[in-house]
Amino acid sequence: MVASIETRAPASRPPSWAQQLRDAVRDPTELADLLDLPAAARTRIDRLPGTFPLLAPRSFVARMRKGDPDDPLLRQVLPLSVETEPVPGFTADPLGEQAIAAAGYLQKYRGRALLIASAACPVHCRYCFRRAFPYSAQLAARADFTGAIEALRASRVGEVILSGGDPLSLSNRRLANLLDRLESVATLRTVRIHTRFPVMLPDRVDRELAALLERTRLKTVVVVHTNHPNELGDDVAAALETLRRSARFVLNQSVLLHGVNDSADVLAELSERLFACNVLPYYLHLLDAVAGAAHFAVDAEVGTQLVAELRARLPGYLVPRLVREIPGKLSKTPIR
Question: What is the pTM of this model?
Answer without folding.
Answer: 0.93
